[in-house]
Sequence to fold (142 residues):
Amino acid sequence: MPEKLNTNFVDHICIAVKDVKQAEKDYVEAFGWDVAYRYVDEPEKIRVVGFMVGQTAIEIMEDLDGTGNTAKFIERSGEGVMLISYNVDNCVKSLDILKKNNVKLIDQKPRYFAEHDRNFAFIHPKATHGILTEIIDGKYQL
Fold:
């Protein structure tokens, strides 16, 4: 029997878009939400706008130069949900559980997200039926 990975809540859902400014406008007009944060992640080649829905962030993101993973996702699948992230108490311990459960991982050890002081790691989409999945610890620093 596999060991249970304890998760706290859905941390964030990333939606790949071609034009983040237009998508931000569309989300604000549709839902009346306030933008909680914006950032550019140069290494990941993404521009992100985040909205908080309770404890869960809805992130819309565009590729910076057409060569990153977001651009590849849109080319392959069109705009849409690209990633689901689960909040965990400890990313290192959670990765150990996933390894014991023989889950196909992208990251063998956590990455550090300096802007929000959080650790995260990716699970390969093949392990989760085509959805890039992430585990992340900590809380948003808004």
